[in-house]
Amino acid sequence: MTTSASRTLTDTDFAALLHGVGLDRRRGPESWSTTFADLDLDSLARVELASRIKGRLGVEVEDRVTADSTPAEVLDLVNDLAGARAGLA
After folding, report:
1. pTM across the whole model
2. Domain Carrier: where (predicted)?
3. What sign does the dihedral 24-10-56-58 (CA atoms) show?
């Protein structure tokens, strides 16, 4: 769960989102440098992940979550965008 003070995703929050869209529960942060394609997360899983991120933090990342991107890259992007958004509020 995010906090209103940080407005970012923790590793635990992000793991829950990834597992919720189909990432094998045995896979943790050590696998996040692997591409979504290699993690067997298809386009529907990636769209669902982006939708859940938008619902939770209000940031749009769908166009940047591709088969060749990694969960680590997406987590960094989300937290950068969410932090910038919070700074504007």
Report:
1. 0.88
2. 5-85
3. negative
